[in-house]
Design goal:
The complex is a heterodimer. By secondary structure, chain A is mainly alpha-helical. Chain A is about 70% helix and about 0% strand. Classes of the chains: A mainly alpha, B mainly alpha.
Chain lengths: ~60, ~200
């Protein structure tokens, strides 16, 4: 994958994580909905696992380093 | 065996080693995550719909700092994967500094503030849960910072390249894991439930 593409993806994931964190805070203040807070935490963790930790590379030698 | 064949064999050997290393790292992360899952469950078992009285602004700030550090770590990893050593060193250093800022925020500010307001490890279930969860997480942040320091030092000595940077990938994954843990701990400690007494 091209460097620019990877860097852009990193930025998009970061923005999504920041927005979701803001949403979490707002939900906690406004509604205290446990299920929504859990769902948001799971979504944020999935984003990090998929795009920052590259869980899909597990068991492969992709990346070549 | 010709020199070219030997080089190909060495390369194949190295790629196989990387796949094994990745499996080992993920098994370590999985086993380590059980400690945090245990603490997470303990929080809800002991406190239920209550949470410790904590500084909301500080909680959001340290969460943002850790999130930003994950972004910088990703940038450092992408940089070295494309042979950009300068940006790799810059973003690794920023990640390390953000990690120290997170530690300062939690251990240096949040802990004394909580203690002044009567929330200590022995003041009750809320205090025990808060200090155990943040303490165990802060210990992992500290080891992550040490790992980052080693990677930064090795990077300065030119030990990593676009072709060979397994240690950077391992360090990045460990750092992101610490972030994932906080993604669950932050709402559990700061957001969910009503404020409990010490």
């Amino acid at each position: 994958m091209k460097k620019e593409t990877e860097l852009a993806r990193g930025v998009i994931v970061f923005i999504l994580l920041a927005v979701l964190t803001g949403a979490e805070f707002w939900i906690a203040v406004a509604t205290q909905a446990w299920s929504a807070l859990f769902a948001l935490a799971l979504l944020k963790a999935s984003l990090v696992l998929q795009y920052y930790m590259h869980i899909g590379r597990l068991g492969s030698d992709e990346g070549g380093h | 065996m010709t020199a070219a064949t030997a080089a190909t064999a060495r390369h194949a050997d190295y790629r196989y080693k990387i796949a094994s290393n990745r499996l080992g790292l993920w098994l370590f992360i999985l086993s380590d995550s059980f400690v945090f899952i245990g603490l997470f469950v303990t929080r809800f078992y002991l406190l239920g719909n209550h949470r410790p009285h904590l500084d909301q602004a500080l909680g959001l700030l340290v969460t943002s700092v850790l999130l930003l550090s994950s972004f910088c770590m990703n940038r450092a990893e992408v940089s070295i994967a494309h042979g950009d050593r300068k940006n790799f060193l810059i973003f690794t250093l920023i990640t390390l500094l953000l990690g120290l800022a997170f530690l300062g925020g939690v251990v240096g500010v949040e802990w004394p503030t909580a203690a002044r307001e009567g929330l200590t490890a022995s003041s009750g279930a809320a205090g025990a849960v808060f200090f155990m969860m943040t303490g165990m997480h802060a210990f992992h942040v500290l080891t992550g910072v040490l790992f980052l320091g080693i990677v930064l030092n090795n990077g300065r000595r030119g030990l990593y390249s676009a072709e060979k940077h397994w240690a950077v990938e391992a360090c990045a994954n460990y750092w992101h894991f610490v972030d994932v843990v906080w993604i669950f701990f932050y709402p559990a400690l700061y957001l969910i439930g009503t404020v409990a007494g010490g």
